[in-house]
Each structure stands twice: as C-alpha cells, then as structure tokens.
Amino acid sequence: MPRVVDREERQLRIAEATLRLLGDNGPGGLTLRRLAEELGGSITLITHFYRNRDELLEGVLTTVLAGYEAELERLERGADAHGRLRILLEWLLPLDEPSRLQEKGRIVMLGHLGPDPAVRRFVDAMEERMTGLLRRHLEPLTPAPDLAGAVDALRVVTNGVILSAVEHPGEWPVGRQLKVLDSALGALGLARVAVRG
User: Fold this and answer.
1) 76 in a structural domain
2) Is residue 193 part of a domain?
3) Domain count along the chain
4) What is the pLDDT of residues 127-162, one digit of tens each?
5) Is 2 part of a structural domain of the chain?
6) What is the pLDDT of residues 85-119, one digit of tens each?
7) Does residue 68 contact residue 54 with C-beta atoms inside 8 Å?
8) E strand or H helix at 92
9) Is residue 185 classed as helix, strand or coil in its secondary structure?
10) Does the model's pTM come out above 0.85?
11) Is residue 110 part of a domain?
12) Beta strand residue intervals within 88-164, DSSP E
C-alpha cells in the first residue's frame, strides 16, 4: 500500500533542504540529484513537485514566503503597531542558529547572481518581500515623506547585522544584535518596547 504523503509537509522539507544546500554549496551546488540525496530519496521525490531547477527555486520561494507570512501573523497577533514593527525586526535578525544558517544561504546566493536568472529572481523576490514587510510595518508609525528613508535605514541596519552575525557568529550574540536594533529605532524616533529579553 503506498504511503500517504502530506504535500505541504514534503514541499516544506524540500524547501528546507534546498536552503541548506544553497547555504553550504552556493547555487552551483544545487542540483535535483544532490537535493534528493540530501532528503534520502530518489530524484522522483523532487520531480514529483518540480520538473527542473528553475521550478524548484520558484516553488521554494513560494513555500518560504507563505511560511514567513503565517509565522509573522502568529507572532504579531495582538500586538500594536510598535510591537509589530519590533517583532518583524527581531524576526529578520539571525537570533538563533537555524535563522543564521538560513541567512548564510541567502548571502551565499548573493555572490552568484550573475549567470543564473533563477537565482536572481529568487533573491530579488525575497528582497522585495522583506522591503515590503518593512514598509507595511512602518506606514502607521512614520510620516509619509520619511517612509522611504526609514524603510531603507532599517533594511540596511538589519542586513548589516545579518552579515556581521553570519560572518562572525561568536562576536554577534543576541544581545549585541538587539542593541544595534534599539539604536536604529531610537535614531528613527521609533523606540518603544523590547520584545525579547
């Protein structure tokens, strides 16, 4: 009797394994065969959902972004506008090892944008979504003329902290990352409450 497989669960496992491979090997190390090996199955495990590497990256992007939206909705439930912004900013930072590894994968991909249009689409879509989330969270807190600058400032700060924490994890513990976040929010006149201890 064939085993019943939860489609969403399988796609999530594929997405997680894809991000691990990208983080460890860069886009050049991502093949359907290598991904199947990472998952401990045959290549049909992947091709059942994605016919080729481009479809895989598009599918992973869709899965990851849907997961982000659901996670943020859960985390932000009941918070006011300042609280939601703080939750988002902390969520963007690599405050634990799984998120540090995920950001490592994103950074590795940035180094391989040239020859691979699928990688470029993936990276651009992720950046567009993250910038859009910042804009959406800042709109109720920032005067319209200052909005674009606030979005850019917080994206630069979060990207800088992410890069530093990925490059030198021992030097960028949670407390140091949050202090930088506090300083940035203070400089923008947006400081209010800390969400994490």
Assistant:
1) yes
2) no
3) 1
4) 999 999 999 999 999 999 999 999 999 999 999 999
5) no
6) 999 999 999 999 888 877 887 787 777 666 677 77
7) no
8) helix 81-92
9) helix
10) no
11) yes
12) none
